[in-house]
Design a protein that fits this description.
By secondary structure, this protein is an alpha/beta fold. It is built from 11 helices and 12 strands. The strands form 2 sheets. Strands 1, 2, 3, 4, 5, 8, 9, 10, 11 and 12 form a 10-stranded mixed beta sheet that branches. 49% of the residues are buried. This is Delta-aminolevulinic acid dehydratase.
Length: 325
């Protein structure tokens, strides 16, 4: 008699034969450091996430460590902004303060990745230096390099340029090498789409552009082959890891980039994905825990090696319980 082709599994057998494996070690939690003192305030557009001043950011780090998450992507909210975003590369800038505070408290127990961009620091909210009403790609590169070196000096373990300027990986690599940080890896936001899913983050980081949009330097959602081109260009320039952003609406892109490159690949499950899940759950429309788990599995199944997510703590718990992993 012919046996059924579908494997009849018990819970332990399901764990044994899973094709997609996840680990808390592959999760990265974004954190927001706000300039000032004694600040810890929930972000309205991102329930469960907080703005913390450098003297209190350790509370969020400790909360994540207790869940098994030890890797963090740092964003800064400065008190003052200007045309050239000087707070981004100030050695006493908000991210630099946060890096030093976290490192003093936690040492090597944590791995700190810093976002390299100018949108949170410029008065106009764009990711580079303006020439009239247009972002000047080449003029922006030295500023990005200065930010990366400043973060390295303050204690970053990795830098992650998110600006999408052409040539920025090469410029940052050269600057880091010349400053004695040849060992510091670059996680390139190689494939970053001009997405509608970024809304809550722009509120959280105060980084919405004051005019126009970012479609001239971020990618068109219609294009997949361009993603491969962008990723291969960053590999050539010296990137150590690559990223696709957003995640869920671009699973095909994650798969394509994974197939055409050989570097570790991160995917960023962005603020809009998180906020939509939270809102639907609050309305009683979905099972938040189940959707969170299923979405994360989908990203890894598509080919990601690393997941940057606001659900990092909760996912680490789900992995520990064996619900995913």
């Amino acid at each position: 008699m012919m046996r059924g082709r579908r494997l009849r599994t018990t819970p332990m057998l399901r764990e044994l034969v899973r094709e997609t494996r996840m680990s808390a070690e592959a999760l990265v939690l974004p954190v927001f450091i706000k300039e000032g003192q004694d600040i810890k305030e929930e972000i309205p557009s991102l329930p469960g996430q907080y703005h913390c001043s450098p003297d209190r950011i350790g509370e969020e780090i400790e909360r994540a460590l207790q869940c098994g998450v030890s890797k963090f992507l740092l964003f800064g909210l400065p008190e003052h902004k200007d045309e050239v975003g000087c707070g981004a590369y100030d050695d006493d800038g908000v991210v630099q303060q946060g890096l030093r505070a976290i490192r003093r408290q936690f040492g090597d127990r944590v791995y700190l990745i810093t976002d390299i961009c100018m949108c949170e620091y410029t008065s106009h909210g764009h990711c580079g230096i303006l020439s009239g009403q247009t972002v000047d790609n080449d003029q922006t590169l030295p500023y990005l390099a200065r930010i990366a070196v400043s973060h390295a000096r303050a204690g970053a373990d990795m830098v992650a340029p998110s600006d999408m300027m052409d040539g920025r990986v090469e410029a940052i690599r050269r600057a880091l090498d010349e400053a004695g940080f040849g060992h510091l890896p670059i996680l390139s936001y190689a494939v970053k789409y001009a997405s509608s899913f970024y809304g809550p983050f722009r509120d959280a980081a105060g980084s919405a552009p004051s005019f126009g949009d970012r479609k001239s330097y971020q990618m068109d959602c219609h294009n997949r082959r361009e993603a491969i081109k962008e990723a291969l260009a960053d590999v050539k320039e010296g990137a150590d890891l690559l990223m696709v952003k957003p995640a869920l609406a671009y699973l095909d892109v994650i798969q394509a980039v994974k197939q055409h490159t050989h570097l570790p690949l991160a995917a960023y499950s962005v603020s809009g994905e998180y906020a939509m899940t939270k809102a639907a759950a609050a309305a009683g429309l979905i099972d938040e825990y189940g959707v969170m788990c299923e979405s994360a599995v989908a990203v890894f199944r598509a080919g990601a090696d690393i997941l940057i997510t606001y659900y990092a703590r909760e996912l680490a718990g789900a992995i520990q319980r064996g619900d995913i992993g």
